[in-house]
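Handout, page 2. Input:
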Amino acid sequence: MNAELDYKSFTLKEVRKGVYAALIKKGQGAWGNAGIIDLGDELLVFDTFASPQAAQELRIAAETLTGKQVRYAINSHVHFDHTFGNQIFRDAHIISSTTTRNELSKINLMELINQFGPYIAQLEEQAEKMSDPIKKQEFFEEDISEKIRLKDNLHHIDLTLPSITFNRKLSLHGTKRTAELISFGPGHSPDDTILYLPEDYVLFAGDLISVNFHPLLAPNGDYHNWQKALMTIADLDIETIVPGHGNVSDREAIHSMISYISEIVDLVITSGEGGSSLEELLKKPILEAFNDWHGSYVYEWNLKTLFNLNKKN
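Output:
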């Protein structure tokens, strides 16, 4: 138990016997954490990374460790870093919420290919303007390098949609354990799904939870519903959490995420009521409780998103 195995794209950490967290390595095409769950008679992977290469490595690891063929691949939500390895699992049952499948079906790869070059150039220009060299390096290593890797892979992506969808909850019963999939609707993304192992007290949270990493409050998500989802998750009997980004943690990660969303929303609302401009808001230091978290550039994006939402309301 708790053994770690090293691969090119990720590190595998056994959190329970037959249950593994696949924790990404920076810039290697994985980008968002994944998981391997041995159900007993069947094998499941949770999320498929951001590239076919990383997904292939995940599949080989899963099948080598267990001696079983992957039967199910789950997509927690639509974002590229959790779905662009789907093609490696096309012979398995790929499962997502109905909304996530619908959102995936809207992706136009040719548009992405055309847009990604200028988009990355814009990010690089943004990074060059950063005065803090540590934050600049972090931006390059944790975001821009991943997007460059994704851009280089886009021609090799065969967008593969889930073959099974569900709306609220789906249970997969194996001979060793049961995996419960719970969809919460919009939060971090248009729809977010967790995987809960009730007999093992383990949660694979997708991007509803990040650990020591600023979570993205995306414009097409819903931070109010995200907070409700986290409060529902807090009622589950959980000891171990595998987040979408960051290291394996305990249930304290749930409360940290609730606090993060509450405090950053309060900051933006209070600043708006005080007449602060966006430029003035962005000059304020990062909230002290989250100052040492990775992804400080995401914090700035979150302020911009919330500021614009607050203006509309």
